[in-house]
């Protein structure tokens, strides 16, 4: 008799048309299900992911669950399944979980990183998971704006026009800006994210940091949510799903409202 297994998965998104299976395109879910069929004598094994990543978006710690129809030893599943997958898709770990575990519904939060390089690298593989933008002319404004994003709010301005009547209210627990000599990283920890939300938050922050968006306009996007607001969507190649959380973590708690210094407050 089989078991429910939790898979931790990594992939380079550039070769895939997103996570969700499609009839006429290569997808992460589709490749995993075809690989599992080869292990189970042709049985269809549904792969249920913690969420759908869009075309071109990467993952270092995507999570999925599968109900194995046969007694495949879960501890050898990564090795045997990886032998049937392309080099841009890997099962990093597999563990047996209870039947009540659900990759999406049991998740407590997610961590996404948007990576930026100031210029195209000389070695092409170094830019596989990063978008290229010039250094911001107003880095302090970008960082202050990023700090003010956390909270529970309506994120409609940072998603698609058609939200299919679903709630656009989510909690963004924490944000971090990591400056590097060759670029920067924008970290977002939230309970869940709307379609394009992280890429549109990154796009707005980059517009703000370049001086092409005013702080008043940025504040309006937060205060007056409007589905499909004119916000640039940063390229998919810079975005990676780093981790899905299933236990309480300090990263998944709302911080106290930022007090800020008087001169910082004057920017808003």
Description of the molecule:
This protein is an alpha+beta fold. Helix content is 20%, strand content 26%. It has helices at residues 28-39, 77-82, 139-147, 197-210, 215-223, 262-265, and strands spanning 4-11, 48-49, 58-67, 89-97, 109-117, 131-132, 151-154, 169-180, 183-190, 239-245. Strands 1, 2, 3, 4, 5, 6, 7, 8, 9 and 10 form a ten-stranded mixed beta sheet that branches. Helix 3 (139-147) runs antiparallel to helix 4. The longest helix has 14 residues, at 197-210. The termini are far apart. The mean pLDDT is 92.
Blueprint (SSEs and pairs):
Elements: E1 4-11, H1 28-39, E2 48-49, E3 58-67, H2 77-82, E4 89-97, E5 109-117, E6 131-132, H3 139-147, E7 151-154, E8 169-180, E9 183-190, H4 197-210, H5 215-223, E10 239-245, H6 262-265
Parallel strand pairs: 3-10, 5-6
Antiparallel strand pairs: 1-3, 1-4, 2-3, 5-9, 5-10, 7-8, 8-9
Helix pairs in contact: 3-4
